[in-house]
Here is the input.
Amino acid sequence: MKLFNIIKNGIFSENPIFRLVLGMCPTLATTTSIENGLGMGVATSAVLIASNAVISVIRKVIPSQVRIPCYIVVIASLVTVVEMVMQAFVPTLYDSLGIFIPLIVVNCIILGRAEAFAARNTVTDSVFDGIGMGLGFTLALVLLAAVRELFGLIAVISILPVGGFIALGCLLAFFNHVGRVRALKAGKPEPGPLRLDCRHCVIGCGTTAVEEY
Here is the structure.
């Protein structure tokens, strides 16, 4: 049940895109088609799961003063492997995603989960956290891409950058509304607006901010 809740948390209550509003650069840039969105989601998920596992294994031997550089080395190594695999087996998708594949290294979702979860939990829990966050990220990308492709048949603006912002804003508003309705029906306090501040960056705020979050 605990592992199921970890996965559920990544898909719903802490969805990287629709709840935490993280990773906006690849989200807006790669969702011009469902194929690109799915490809980016799977690639990011693979790195996320593997990096969580590796960092959870080595977390006790990494000096706290150099933990972030160590995490980045681990993530960069895994991204290189994923990039080479994609280039070998899905070259068309690799060419389509372009620079956004190596930029997975600096995706704040991956580094954030490494610092906030993998560095504090067991390997099993960390792997399932990676699965949940990866699924949440991938499903959000595919949903956004599907909306943009659908409306792109009517208005070309949907597949342009401005269309990405409009579609994302509408989906965020929808899911926020659903969250409020569900909270009211369950007799819980209505959730307040999401604060987009430095607490989303565990690197900038340190561990205290993560614990408060």
